[in-house]
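Before a computer can learn anything about folding, someone has to put a protein's shape into writing. The outcome of that step, for a single protein, is printed below:
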Amino acid sequence: MKLSNATLNALPDTVLRPTYDRSALEPGIVHIGLGNFHRAHQAWYLHRLMQQGLALDWAIIGAGVRQNDDAQRVRLESQDYLTTLIELDPNGRSAEVIGPMIGFVPVEDGNAALIAQMSDPAIRIVALTVTEGGYYIDPVSKAFDVDDPDMQHDAAHPERPRTAFGAMIAALRQRRDNGTGPFTGQSCDNLQGNGTILRQTVVSLARMSDPDLADWIDANCTFPDSMVDCIVPATGPKELELVKTFGIDDAAPVTHENYRQWVIEDAFCAGRPPWDKAGATFTDNVHAFESMKIRILNGGHQLISDAGEVLGVEFISGCMDHPLIGKFFRKVAAQEIAPHVDAVPGMTAVSYVDLIDRRFSNPEIIDTVRRVAFDGSSRQTGFILPTLRDALEAGGEISGLALGQAIWARMCEGTREDGSTIEPNDPIWSKLNAAAIAARTNPDAWLEQRDLYGDLAEHQHLKSSFGDWLRMIWSDGMEAALQKYLNT
């Protein structure tokens, strides 16, 4: 049955659906970057509130600034912006249709429609999921990249920006001039201090063209930090067929694990939904939660996906089943990452490693190694290198972390051990590939990528360990290197 408002009541009884009147919903949030994760996570929390009769004036308007965002708009518009969420629990699958989204801004050059939507006084939150590498920051210094061509364009053409951040600034200029007031900018990406980084990007870009506006934004807008957590695979042919087994024809279904967490700093200048009534946590100590999650879960994802790619393992659960890769994750996470992660209420770092082990091992989650390994230049620098730096400063063990860097370098060479090609999987793949090829005979060539490693390239202990591992991987193979690490 084609998913739509008209067919909701005709869905099979086993499928949960909205009990609220969607025609009575009013917009309160614009969400930029409306992919699978947003719909399985933030939109689900809002849906849960609406099921309780709450937050009916906080409905979501989707938005995007890239051409492929328009394809998503067309898919969702064809089904009245409804989404089927399929929970992949080892004990059984279940489906739920959610409906907190009520529109999608046209995707167009200059972003006039998006700017107009964000200028609407009804919009009180502008949220984003634009990937970790989408905030125009230097991966080493974390400073705003003022020289990026996109930022230069938006500063020179503030009335016709090409980025989400330029559009936010244009809308805030209108709101200031009209007396509408500010909105909250809410990053939902996997970045340590994601709200702080969003503030830096927006204010810094505004300052390039309008310093007075930059000061107004900095003084009046809020940008809460948050930690988001739910494993959400990409949607492909398997997922499109899976949703049909529930009797639903959905052009954009989402699969997800049976776990969610959302920890948010309570800093909203124009109000917010009561997400805590749907299970979110408001706290003044987001940093501890996000550090635990980013370093162990996201960092762990990088460790196992790169190894899996080189060894030809297709899925993350397959990596955990592999006789060496799963053990590699557990040892590095417990012995080299956890010592540099503080406990949070109800969870120690080692207990969290056990939790992530179980989640990664869920055979129902068909999460591809390729998806998880994507954009290592952002994810390694954000998820792994901060721990490596802390370990070096503390004199801690780094052998497994160094091996992880050697595995990343081996992956970026572009071939698997069976001789097949690893297709480009990073925005700067050609640069990484060249460094990886050079590192095959000169390991220092990889660490000398100062834009990624900064002064870590000068640390002799790291250079020595990394070089030994990379040479062993090339001479004896990935499994031999993993086995040696596990035996030490």
